[in-house]
Amino acid sequence: MVVVLALAVSLYRLGKSAATIAGVIAISSWAVSFAWPTTGEGSLAMVVLSDRYLTTSTDTERALFVAGAEVLLALNDTQVVIGVLQTLGILLLSALMLRSAFPPGLARLGMATGAIGIVSEALRPLLGWTYAVYGLLLLGWLIWLAVTLWRIGIQPVEIMATGRAER
Q1: 110: pLDDT strictly greater than 90
Q2: H/E element holding 12?
Q3: Domain residues of the chain, as ranges?
Q4: Structure-derived torsion over alpha carbons of residues 100, 106, 111, 115, reported in degrees to the nearest 10
Q5: What are phi and psi of 90, to 5 degrees?
Q6: DSSP characters for 130-141?
Q7: Is 13 within 8 Å of 73 (Cβ atoms)?
Q8: What is the DSSP letter of 44?
Q9: How far is CA 153 from CA 57, 96, 149, 160, in A?
Q10: Could you give the CA distance from residue 137 to residue 140 in angstroms, rounded to a whole number?
């Protein structure tokens, strides 16, 4: 979320509205994911359920905790707009990157990651282990983006907007 926020801020001068909309779409998905019961803090509920399962003494009590865990697993496999929003934001931000001083390969990888991510998130329950391909693309893009942002962090903002230093 921090890397995408930094990207949105760095692209702000290229198109204030476009950078703001793309940034809000991408960042809101990460923020909302904390409220979804199977991501963020919600995934810790599985640990609590398993601990309680072990401390119960009857099958009836254990059935309650098994049912709770099954609900969380079912929610995890549900198509969620959260992931689609994240990838849409990545696609839009990457399209803006093409007009900036960011490496064109990074922008193209971001666009590919966003496009593949939209499809992957929408079809996640059907993809099985192949969903991991999108995850690897996302990880690679985020690492490359973070390194690039780190390297240009000391340069004037004008370089990012125009591709050349201005005084």
Answers
A1: yes
A2: none
A3: 2-33+80-162, 40-76
A4: -160
A5: -65, -45
A6: GHHHHHHHHHHH
A7: no
A8: G
A9: 57, 18, 6, 10
A10: 5
